[in-house]
Every structure is written in C-alpha cells, then in structure tokens.
TrEMBL record:
SUPFAM superfamilies: Cupredoxins. GO terms for cellular component: periplasmic space. Cu cation binds at residues 199, 204, 239-240, 248, 253, 395. Residues 55-87 form the Blue (type 1) copper domain. It comes from the Bacteria. Binds 1 Cu(+) ion. It comes from Ramlibacter montanisoli. Residues 157-263 form the Plastocyanin-like domain. It is found in: Periplasm. The lineage of its organism: Bacteria, Pseudomonadati, Pseudomonadota, Betaproteobacteria, Burkholderiales. This is Copper-containing nitrite reductase. Homotrimer.
Amino acid sequence: MVYLDEKGTVNPVLRGKVGETLEITITSGEGAEHDIVFPELDAKSEKFTGKSAPVKLLVKLTQSGEFTYYCSIPGHRQIGMEGVLEVTGPADANAKAKPAAPAATVMGAATANPIAPAAKNAVVISQDPNAVPQPLGARAPTLVKYAIETVELEGKLDDGATFTYWTFARKVPGPMLRVKKGDMVEIKLSNNPNSKAVHSIDLHAVTGGMGGGEHTQVAPGETKTITFKALNPGLYVYHCATPSVAHHISAGMYGLILVEPEKGLPKVDKEFYVMQGDLYTNHAFGTKGHHEYSPEKAADELPSYFTFNGSVGALTKEHKMSAKAGETVRVFFGVGGPNKVSSFHVIGEIFDKVYSEGATNTIKQNVQTTLVPAGGATIVDFKVQYPGKYLLVDHALSRAAKGGIGALEVTGPADDKVYKASEPGHGNMAH
C-alpha cells in the first residue's frame, strides 16, 4: 500500500514554505479504508474508501523542517503508506510548543475516555463448538473445495458490550476445515464489498506462499484462490495475514484446519471445536458500550478480554456443549492469539490422550493441563465418567474473570466408585 500523486510517484515528497497552507485532495484507488496524517503539524484527514468522495485536508505550514505523513490505520504505515513533507523558510515563533496545561487539567483530560453506545444491531458472532465436520475415515485423497467470505460486522462481545469484529464467514473462530493427508485443497477467499480493510488467509497447514497469505490479499469486493496439497497430518491454525496482523487476528480472524492422517483418527462419541483469543480494546473488561480495538494495548500485550469462541459467555450462554456419562469426548482446541499462550485445562477431568501441539503421531496420556502456544493447537480426548458441569479454562486463572471460560454439561447416573461427596454434616475434619 502506498500513496501516489497524479504522476504516479510513490509516496511523493511534498514541499512548501513557512506561512503557506497546503490543500491536499486524496481518494482511494481500492476498497480499503485509509487516511493521511501529519502528526507533527496536528493535521489529520477524515477516513476514506474507494466508495467515498475525495477528502480534502488543509495543512498549515507553521515551521520549517522535515515532517512525516502516513496512514494511521493500524498496519498500513508499516507496509508502505508513509512519506515526507519538506518545509523551507524561517521557523515561525508562534509555532513553538505551548506551555503545558496545569496538572489537574491534564489529569482530567486523561481520565475522560467516553465510550460510544453499544451497537443496536449487533449479532452473535460466537462459533458453535458443535460445528465440527464429520470424520473422513479411510478414504483416498481427493480435491476438496472451500469458499470463505471475510466479513466485518458489529458483534456481541459481552452483556451490554459490542465490538467491531473482523471474521471468516461471520463467526469467531471461522469455520473448522477438515481434509485428509494427500488431498488437494482449494481455498477461494472473497472479501465482502462492505469491508473497509484488505483481508487474507494464512493456513499453517500449507507449504509455500507464506501459507497462502502472499497470494490472498483480497480487497473489498474481490476474490482470490489458492490450491495446496495437504502434506502433513495434524491440527493447524489459520488466520488473516494482512498488517496489522495482530489487529486482524485479535478482531476474530482465526480458525482451525484438521489434516487427518491416512487412516483417520480413532473414533470418539463427541467432537467439539474451541479456540481461545486475546482481545485488546480501548476500555476495560465489563465496560458497557461499543469497544474499539486498541493497538497500544496490543503492542504492550495487555488484553482487555480473553475469549473462548469469540465472546464472553459463548460456551456458557450462547452455545451448549453436552455429553453423557460413559462417552468419550474430543476437543479440537486452538489459540488464535495473537499473543498469549494458553494453559488449557478442564476442571474435574483428566485428558486421557493429548495430541501434543496438534501432531497426530505424538500422543501423551493422563495429562492435567496442556500448553498451547499462540498460533498453535492441540487435540484432547477424555472419557466423561461422572455427571456434572466441567469447566474449560486457561489455567492462568485470572483470565477466567476476563471471559475465558466454557462449560461441558455431562448427564447420566452418578457412579460412587468414581466420585462420592460426603453428606452434609457427616464430613470429617482434622484439627
């Protein structure tokens, strides 16, 4: 992404003299949203897209020197939208820095951080954990096609709180993809015409092309296609790879792709799809209203929210995970991130099998808590042998209070040989 002048010069050097005012008329040559800012001269344009009218910005040149201009949309400056303004002439004495405001005034301004009302038409973006494709079994390799649309929408983050999510197929995480080792896989990625950003897809199961991210940078209203061979079995993360990559991922653009081994995975009774994300907003957890993404908090790795399947309550209120006592449960678990490692644990259960780091040939047994890195995944199998509520958590347990919690409901008869609680008033206590 770059700025072009009428001659096609990339990020042209702008020139002027002290006392002049530059009038800059700017528009977009494609669908993504942009702006232009001159932070040292306190000048910033309105945001614009390929669908909006040209934007005009007046920049008063009050002092000589070399000043930077750039696009303030996260990630755009880093991938090319930056240039220089050269101003000649004597420095304007009136342009010197103004005296600092009294401390009380500055503190008052810093604490005033109003939040917009929650979006009225916000939708449920949380992915149903039951939305797992059927096992493929021992079939021969074939051509598998997936068509995915990237969509930006106002979604429900928490009770009374909304957020502008960026999604694969309107859900967080995006759809779980299931293929087999040896398959040829076609991914057709379309970007909704109403999007304001370019999006892409990088699948960790792909060899070459930056996982597909190199060739799927899709502007609003466009479609691009890649085809790859599923060479390695395992459970892999996919995510958007458009700068700012952290913004796109945190806002919801991640998912899982399972490449089954040639003979498939062992049969289980229930399969679930769960992903953890860390979300950075300009307001604290629990604040009512519409939250915006905070690049500053993301840079400092200070999440406001931790979510399972995109939102607070996704796996406790929006969607139900259930099984019967005696059944074997499998959880396909991944961490979209973009930054935090998960200590994945199910309270009241022990993982009979852990496919460590999503590898289908590395199985650990009898595991209490398993580490899953940002951009990583695991498969856990366990037999539920006693009824009750089993909580899914990141065992960095402060995160549960920021939204990172789910629940598996197990029904059936209680087996005293597995677990038995003392009757009220009959417990023993050592002194």
